[in-house]
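Example record

The entry below shows one chain as it appears in the dataset: sequence first, then structure tokens.
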Amino acid sequence: MPSFSFDAVSDYDKAEMNNVFDQTEREITSRYDFKGTPAAIEWLTDKTGVKIIGASEWQIDSILEIIRKKLATRGQSQKLLDTSKEIIESNLKASKEVPFKKGLDQEKAKKITALIRDTYPKVKPQIQGDVVRVVSSSKDDLQAVMQLIAAKDFDFPVTFTNYR
């Protein structure tokens, strides 16, 4: 009997993030309420996140809202933004680093595997590093598991790769 599988990962599409960054940058330069202010967006090292610069906390929040809207229009999860870092204010400028969440740690992977085992006992989830491999003899079961994981509101983004 043939077996089918897919990987559940916590990752983001770098090309889409480039597009989100470019669109956000364009909107910042064209908006009237940002004229004459230090409002800007920069990449963190190796494009692993963004640094938002503004005149105050409200400006940083509005730029972050622009980023969220661009993510939504491009079909990306807003959960990949790690907004836990504090806003740093100095010299009439405020900045905030927003790294992108990537990778499943053991605790997150165990949440996914427990959910799958409780709902679909015939499907076999396995934790392999920062990936959860899900194997089944039925493609229908795999698609049902994908829908289950997508519908579950985890506090981290989950995408699917290597569907075979």
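Notes for this example: The first strand starts at residue 4 and ends at 9. Strands lie at 4-9, 40-43, 49-54, 88-90, 93-99, 124-128, 131-136, 159-161.
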